[in-house]
C-alpha cells in the first residue's frame, strides 16, 4: 500500500473514531434512558480498550496506529457515566474507575502480564460484543443502541486490519481486529434487524 493511501486510512479512522460514540450518546441523552444498552458490555469494552492501549504504548508502536483509542475511551467513559446516571448506579462508577486505574498500572509490572493481558483483551472485547448481542436477543429491541455507532466500529476495525498489516504486523493485534470486525458487523445487523421488525409492527 502506498504511504499516501496508508495515511488516508489512518486519517479516516481517526475521524470516524473521534465521533464514534456520539450518535449513541445523543440517543441516550434524547431518550433519557439507556434501554437496549448493556452496562456489562460497555464495561468489558472499556477494559479491552484500556488493555489494548497499554499494550501499544508498552511496545512503543507508532502513535498513528492507536491514536484514536484515548478518544474512544473518553467517549466510552462519558457514555458509561450517562448510563450509570440514568440507571441510578453512580456510586458504582467510582468503584469501576478505581479498578481500571489500578489495572492500568498492574498489567505492565512484568512483560508476561502485558502479553497475557493482550491475548485476554481479545476475549474480553469479544465478550463485550456478545453480551450486547445477548441483550438485544433477550429484549428483541434495539432500544437506544445506535446502528450508526456500530457501523462506524465496523469501518474502524476493517481499517485497523489494513494498517496493522502494513505497519506492526503484530499477530495478536491482527487477530483482535478481525474478531472485532466480525462481531461489530453482527451487532450492527442485529440492531437493524430489530429496528425493521419494530417498524413493521
Automatic annotation (TrEMBL):
Q: According to its record, what are the GO cellular component terms? A: membrane
Superkingdom: Eukaryota
Gene name, Swiss-Prot/TrEMBL: Pqlc3
Q: Does the keyword Phosphoprotein apply?
A: no
Lineage, broadest ranks: Eukaryota, Metazoa, Chordata, Craniata, Vertebrata
| Main localization (coarse) | membrane
**Looking at the keywords, is Membrane present?**
yes
The entry's protein name is: PQLC3 protein
Which species does this protein come from? Setophaga kirtlandii (Kirtland's warbler)
Q: Where are the transmembrane segments?
A: 42-61, 93-113, 173-194
How does the protein's chain sit in the membrane according to the entry? Multi-pass membrane protein
Pfam families given for it? PQ-loop
